Amino acid sequence: MSEPLYDLVITGATVLTGAPASHAIDDAVIAISDGRFARIEAASRDAAPLRAHRSLHLPGRVVTPGLINVHTHANLSMVRGVAEDLGFAPAYTPGIPQGHMVTPDEAYAIARLGALEALLFGSTLINDTFVHADVVTPAMADVGLRVWSCGRIHDVDFSGVSVGRWDHVDAIGDKTLGEAIALAERYDGKSGGRIGVQLAAHAPDTCSTPFLRRIARAAEDTGLRVTTHLSQSKVELARIRERDGMSPPELLDELGLLNDRLTAAHCIHVSDGDIARIGNAGVHVAHIAKGNATGATIAPTHRLRAAGAKLTLGTDNMHADMVEVMRWALAVGRIQLGAVTPDWQPETVFEMATLAGARAMGLEDEIGSIEIGKRADFVAFDFRRPHLTPMTNALGNLVHVAQGRDAEVVAVDGELMVVDGKPTRVDADAVRRDAALAIEALWVRARGS
Prior knowledge:
By secondary structure, the protein is of the alpha/beta class. The protein has helices at residues 104-120, 133-143, 158-161, 170-187, 190-193, 209-222, 234-244, 248-255, 272-281, 289-294, 301-307, 322-337, 346-353, 355-360, 394-400, 428-447, and strands spanning 5-11, 14-15, 28-33, 36-42, 51-57, 61-65, 67-72, 123-130, 146-151, 195-196, 199-201, 226-230, 262-266, 284-287, 310-313, 378-382, 407-412, 415-419, 422-423. Residues 62-416 form the Amidohydrolase-related domain.
């Protein structure tokens, strides 16, 4: 029988498969057919070269699964370099551009910048929430990566939140939840399975208790997973304690939202009882290692993990470098322990950025590791650079020293979306220019000038 003709064959690279109990494969051969991994093995001197429509010989590179960013807001690049130093989330901060200020055209331009940034840094899936999701979802997917997206679901009037006014309005809840369900009906599973929707309940304090109950029913009725911010601030804790007489995790538990189909970002301000609840429910915790540390906070990741929570990684606001986030997660975890331990190593955070992220998205059978039969989402990092030499330990170099901008090749479903560090589907300069103009206009309005 003749050797099959593959769509893409990669040779010469070191492969970190991300599969459970898997080690690095030096001088590997990867073959891809119909958008899926068909062969993954060490090269053999005696074997004939595999036949392929396209071949890439990548010595000195390290190939990993595509990175999975389970919590981000692509449009918040609009406050990059400013919001990080204000000490609080942008939606709660006066004097800077807010989501309710963004027009659909501006959201389109800025979201494409965020999606492009994520792709160039090696993310092949982002789970994004913000505004105008009907516009930005296909726009981001067209850049080339997988996009799970949803408009933020809330019934608070966000125009008052940044100045301390909390008005919950039924009409706002009807609109945001209705738009999310309509988005799922229109886009979930589309673009060859590259687009999806999770119901993005913004936060317990920006959703009234009756409205949270409606979201729980909607999740049950539609079968969609839920993503939210949880215990992200002391303001949130105070609001829920005053309003409901309990903590945010207790509230979500009572309403049926605290379960293994929930991805909860932050989980910083949690009591021992909260940690036990989150762990018992098997919640996927989106650890925002860099963003939280920038704001002088750290989630109790070790206690959450010990309780049963499933740790994943997200970039949240202002940047999209998941490689940097892995490094921050490793470092702040060790700071909490006060020691370097065998169970908090580069492979720990690498798994959080890949296969654990796939589990949070309900996609662990499809993506998250380089295994035969899975969709061919991968990144090739260029290790032929001074800061990545020597390559004694590829995974150690990746987590401790590499950066997202070291990504040379990025593929989704075996399609090359980035080659030589440049996108194949869009004009990067045009995307950047359009977004810069949109952001400039937003800042002018926010300043009232």
